[in-house]
Each structure stands twice: as structure tokens, then as C-alpha cells.
Amino acid sequence: MGARSLANGRHAPAVRQNGAVTTSSARAPGAGGRPAGVPAGLADRYTAAWELVPDGRARDDGGALVLPVRTRAGEPAVLRLSPPRPGAEHEHLALRVWAGRGAVRLLRAEPADRALLLERTADRDLYELPVLEACRVLGELTRVLARPLRPPFPRLSETARRWQAELEGAVDLDARFPRRFRLQAVRSLERLRRDELDAALVHQDLHHGAVRASVRAPWLAAGADAVVGTPEFALVPALWHRTEEAGHGGALAAALADRMEALALAAGADEERLRAWTLVRCAVAARDEARRPTGAPHREVGRLVQLCKAVQRGA
User: Fold this and answer.
1) Catalytic residue ranges
2) Percent of the chain predicted with pLDDT > 90
3) Helices (H), 87-230
4) Confidence class for position 178, pLDDT limits 50, 70, 90
């Protein structure tokens, strides 16, 4: 699967750079289409060790190898093998905390190899729903998945402190990303850090392509990218997907305002904090994109600029 825009891409891969979810992937395919970073033969090793029977074609899901299988008892499942990345070591722990409530069930795990055996879902996601209906689902899942603080997950307070310092010094970004947005993100972080940021365990990359239909529940998060943070921080990816459906300028601003309202109401979140976190995460993503050597990320920075303008215009 190629790198796609978070603004325009269906199933856009979420790539973490210093804690931010950015808009394109630097990974390259391995041999035979296997995602880079997933060792050759690892799928064979775990299908044998866990007595699994392949039950479909393997696919690349945001850099992870996903293989449909059946267990020894005949239960449909998926074997998911992820490459090394920050946060991957906590995925199985978050899934255990959620225990199938709002997310897929974890059937088995080997953290050392980032190997997970997961409940299988339908091959349908929230792109099938109208945008506002999908936003309500994402908001409800964000609320359901929020759990009391637990170690050893990353803490948003630490990430926010680091981001503020990094953005204050990121003057090299001003040539590609408006200086006013960078400084607004810094000021937003100053305000946000006055409140409790380590409120609950939340899913920080929950978006339209990361949620699947299921038999036992209408919709489930298909994986876990957990941080101890706030619902407003967690809702940003739900906001910045599918913006191509909204148009540009005033139309985009109006559409994002409607989406913010739907997300905040369903999640029990604060709209103004959601707006602030959107500016912050866009600025951090733009910084990471601008430092990539190829031309494509520069287009992604342009999309992030348009998103920032629309978010402010809709205020």
C-alpha cells in the first residue's frame, strides 16, 4: 500500500514521528510485497507455533502484515505482524485493558516479535457511512475506549512538553508552514498544559479506516495505538480524514465545524480543546513532513496548511 494523505487518503497509514501521527509513510516494500521491517518467514513461524491455518491472502495494513487465519478450533482470526515502531510494544497491553469493549479481542500475543493474533472483523470500515454518522461512531468509540490511567503507556503531558519546546525552536519550518500557525500551536500547548493531560488511556489514531464492522458489535477499533491523554487529543485523526469530501475554503471550514460538533458531542469532549489539539497536531505533522527529502511531503504540508486555515475559520 503506497503512502497516502491523511487529508485525502482512504486507509492512510499513520506514521509516528517523535510521537506525532503524520501524513505519509517512509517505508518501502520488502521482498514479495512483504512490508519492510517484518522479517521474512515470521508469518510461517507463528502459523506453525500457534497452530494456525491461513484463510486468505496476506495484506499490508499501514506497514503491518495481516494474514487471515483460523485457529486450531476453527475460529476466524487474523495474524498481525508489525515492524518496529514507537508504541508497538504497548499495543497488546492496550488491547488487554480494553478486553474487546470497543476494540477487537486479543487472542494471543508475542510482544518480542510484535506478533498479535486478533479477532477477525468484516472487511468494512467507516468510509461506508456518511461523514457525520461516522464521526458520531468515532466519538462514541473514543468515549468507550477511554479507561483510567495505567502504566506503562506514554503520557500526553510529556509529549506536549516536548512538542512545545520543539515547535518553539522550529524556525526552519517557517519557509514551508506559516509561522503564525507554528506560534499558535505553541500558544495552544501553553494553554492546554495548564490542565490535566494524563486523564485516561485513549486511542490516539482512531479514524475512519481504523474501525471495522463486526458481528458482535456494530463497529470496533481494529488495533490499538494507546496513550494516556485526553479525548480531545484522541479525536484529531477522526477530524482530518475525508476532508476531500468537504471542498475548500468556507465549505471546508463549515464541514469541519459540523464534524467537530458531532465528535465532541459523542465523545463528551470540549470543542475548543479539540480545535486547539488539531492545530497542534497539524503543526507537528507539518514539521515532520517538511523534513522529508522527497517532493510528496511538501504537498502534504500544503494540505495541513489548508486544514489549519479551515479550523480557524470555523471558530
Assistant:
1) 205
2) 71
3) 91-98, 131-145, 156-168, 179-192
4) very high
- pLDDT, one tens digit per residue, over 91-130 is 999 999 999 999 999 999 999 999 999 999 999 999 999 9
**Has residue 33 got a pLDDT over 60?**
no
Structural element, H or E, at residue 115: strand 115-119
Is the pLDDT score of 180 beyond 90? yes
- C-alpha cell belonging to residue 245: 469530501
152 upstream amide cis, omega within 30 of 0:
yes
Q: Show the domains of the chain with their CATH numbers.
A: 15-119 (3.30.200.20), 126-313 (3.90.1200)
Query: Exposed e or buried b for every residue in 215-247, given b needs 16+ CB within 10 A?
Result: eeeebbbbbbbbbbbbbbbbbbbbbbbbbeebe
Question: How is residue 298 written as a grid cell?
Answer: 511538501
Longest dimension (CA), the chain: 58
Element (H, E) at 20: strand 20-22
d(CA 242, CA 314): 17
211 vs 20, which has greater pLDDT? 211
Beta partners for residue 200, in sequence order: 229
Cα end-to-end distance, the chain, whole Å: 36
**Residue 221 is which amino acid?**
A
Cα distances from 62 to residues 37, 89, 209, 235, in angstroms, run 12, 16, 10, 19
Tell me how far apart the alpha carbons of residues 172 and 313 are, in angstroms, rounded to a whole number.
26
> Between the CA of residue 302 and those of 138, 187, 256, what are the distances in Å?
26, 22, 17
Q: How many of the other CB atoms lie within 10 Å of CB of 106?
A: 21
